[in-house]
Amino acid sequence: MALPNTPPLTFGRYPTPVKPIAELSTSHSELWVKRDDLTHEVYGGNKVRKLEYLLSAARAAGAKRVVTVGAAGSHHVLATTYFGNQVGLSVEAIIVPQPRTDHVSQVLRASLALGMRPFPVSSWAQVPLRLAQRVLSGARPIWIGGSTAFGTMGFVAAARELADQVRAGVLPEPDVCVVALGSGGTAAGLAVGFAAQRMKTRVVGVCVAGPRSLICLQARRLARACTRATRTEVRDIQLAFDGRFLGPGYGFATQYAEDAAEEARLAADLTLDGTYTAKAFAAALWQVRARRARRVVFWNTLSSAPMQPLLTHAVAESALDPALRRLLR
Ligand SMILES: *Cc1c(COP(=O)(O)O)cnc(C)c1O
């Protein structure tokens, strides 16, 4: 199927704001933030833009039920459940354990409260078989993190949105855009989109999962897949990777991420998470402080909508089925 260049469904409120962070800028480098935490008032963040493409494709294919995959605190599973419901799809998810934090517990319980049907497994190795079973039962698969070429087109469009903001004088053209890199669609789509807009902005994907080589390969592969739909050349894509901020692995807290989150809170009133955005923000601060670029934009991928309304009908963690409680290691 040809990749659509404009979203066939719109869930979000666009454009999301861009703001300078004066307190963390220096005489050499300006730091800006793209507020994709505000894509939606009930549940925002980066998955909204991908799901506009993915869920419209599911609907066009006549699906009634979709199945996706994620760790216990997967924002992608929560977003797929919420927006899937909005367009009349029921949502199943294969769920893998993740280190427990309050945030991870809330995301899992919110997904369940919204009607996500869970299929807990004890490791990533068990995912393919479980997923195959669900697909054979008639559920349409939505790839982990929503990172197929289709979902990635949401961020090609997002790059166009930022280019329009640059042209309108809202912000100067960034030299570097720093973003968390998980399944890769966000960074890949932005890099393709900036190239398509003839911007000089280089994307730095901050690895938040390992193994690093695989994560980078996946992002490059997605970028290549989107060039055909956007009339860009692979050689024009500026996509770099920063693997220094991962720490012990996906979902594990690090001191520098905690420090970066505290700086973001004090200087810009941003709430970041330990799995993705605090690590990416630490990398953005490094770009500024090591004088790597004059203009740095941090792309905030975490929803800042309050979780409380999503937890109104959620069960307490202690009341979860033991198989689900084991997902919070
Ligand atoms: C999913 C997610 C990411 C990673 O985006 P990818 O497109 O999978 O690389 C980054 N930040 C947050 C908050 C996320 O939920």
Write up what this structure looks like.
This protein is α/β, with parallel strands linked by helices. The chain has ten helices and ten strands. Helix 5 packs across helix 7. The protein starts with 17 loop residues before the first strand and ends with a helix. The mean pLDDT is 96. Bound molecules: pyridoxal-5'-phosphate (PLP). Pyridoxal-5'-phosphate (PLP) binds next to helix 2, strand 7 and helix 6. The site of pyridoxal-5'-phosphate has 18 residues, from helix 2, strand 7 and helix 6.
Write a concise keyword list for the protein shown above.
binds pyridoxal-5'-phosphate; single chain; alpha/beta; 329 residues; four-stranded parallel sheet; six-stranded mixed sheet; globular
Nutshell version of this structure?
α8 packs across α9. The chain starts with 17 loop residues before the first strand and ends with a helix.
